[in-house]
Design goal:
Number of strands: 13
Distance between the termini: 119 Å
CATH class of the largest domain: Alpha Beta
CATH architecture of the largest domain: 3-Layer(aba) Sandwich
Structural class: alpha/beta
Radius of gyration: 32 Å
Shape: globular
Largest sheet: 6 strands, mixed
Strand content: 15-25%
Number of domains: 3
Length: 333
């Protein structure tokens, strides 16, 4: 009898050991599954929020960080585009026409931004020291400059070859949308474009109501005067297509042309826009003092509008175009 009791106890102990072992194994297997699940879960989070994105541009493809903090931008138009979507560039180019600093119409939003030379001759040493996440340049930038910049950081090449615009009056928005793609802000860019279109349409109503809408856009340079065309540049299509001004008989079709002082009396413009280069003031004074200037209808009606030297830059961007509309509406009041 005693032996039977001992056998029963031993059997019960053996069963308890087996159950404990099974429980331990089950727990371990469960933990392994959970660990694998957690690992897979972590991988899913990473894959759904990648650290980089691939951007297609004129020179192929470039991989850039999703969270761009240090963008070097070598174009006034692209500075406008970044600011339009609420992004501040880390460094920008300077140009002689800027006065060697920020574009004046954007300067209040660029405080503290680094300056890194001109678009055509960027300061490679300064750019390297800034350790940029991405560099954005125009198609006109020389091949050797692109090659050097690409060694520093992923370099996005945007723009359209000169005069390769066909009949698309919205081509200037393509670069804005591409820059917005860098930041995943395409919807914000589209919203800003829509707001500008509404503002433009409102301004066009006022211009359509004018009795005579003939307008010439002249650029006064150091020793020459140029008349801008009906197409071939964003500012041209903006004035004559979007806003509805009518070109003069002397306004060329697609390329700006030099215009001599002797021809100016033939300028049948009822409205005249003068964009004066910083070094063009003396030339402008000579023109205004000439008797050949007085027969122009816009001069006789005192409808000559002198702009700063930024309209050509402003025509490329949402911010700039909005300011052009504000200028025109102020002048026409």
């Amino acid at each position: 009898m005693q032996r039977n009791k001992i056998a029963v106890v031993i059997g019960m102990l053996f069963m308890m050991i087996l159950l404990a072992a099974c429980g331990s194994n089950s727990g371990t297997e469960g933990n392994d599954v959970n660990a694998e699940s957690n690992t897979n879960g972590g991988e899913n989070v990473v894959s759904s929020e990648p650290a980089t994105r691939t951007i297609t541009h004129l020179r192929g493809e470039s991989t850039v960080p999703v969270n761009i903090e240090r963008a070097v931008v070598l174009s006034a138009a692209y500075i406008d585009h970044l600011l339009t979507i609420g992004e501040k560039p880390y460094a920008v180019n300077v140009e002689l026409r800027y006065g060697g600093d920020y574009p004046a119409y954007l300067a209040d939003q660029l405080e503290g931004v680094h300056l890194v030379g001109s678009a055509d001759s960027p300061n490679l040493e300064a750019i390297t020291e800034l350790d940029p996440d991405v560099i954005v340049i125009e198609s006109r930038t020389a091949d050797e400059v692109y090659t050097q910049l690409e060694k520093i950081a992923p370099t996005i090449v945007l723009g359209t070859e000169w005069l390769d615009y066909e009949d698309d009056t919205t081509y200037w928005t393509k670069d804005l949308l591409k820059i917005a793609e860098l930041y995943g802000k395409e919807d914000a860019a589209k919203q800003k474009i829509a707001e500008l279109e509404a503002k433009t349409a409102q301004a066009k109503l006022k211009i359509d109501a004018l009795e005579d809408k003939r307008l010439a856009y002249l650029r006064v340079r150091d020793k020459t005067v140029q008349i801008y065309a009906q197409t071939g540049h964003p500012i041209n299509s903006f004035l004559y297509h979007d806003l509805g001004f009518v070109p003069t008989a002397l306004t060329p079709e697609s390329q700006r042309e030099d215009i001599s002082l002797e021809v100016i009396p033939q300028l049948d413009a009822n409205y005249l826009v003068l964009e004066v280069d910083p070094n063009g003031q003396e030339n402008l004074k000579t023109i205004k003092e000439s008797s050949l200037w007085k027969p122009v209808p816009a001069v006789q009606k005192e409808q000559v509008f002198e702009t700063d030297s930024y309209w050509l830059f402003k025509g490329w961007g949402v911010i700039g175009r909005g300011q052009i509309i504000d200028d025109l509406m102020s002048w026409l009041d």
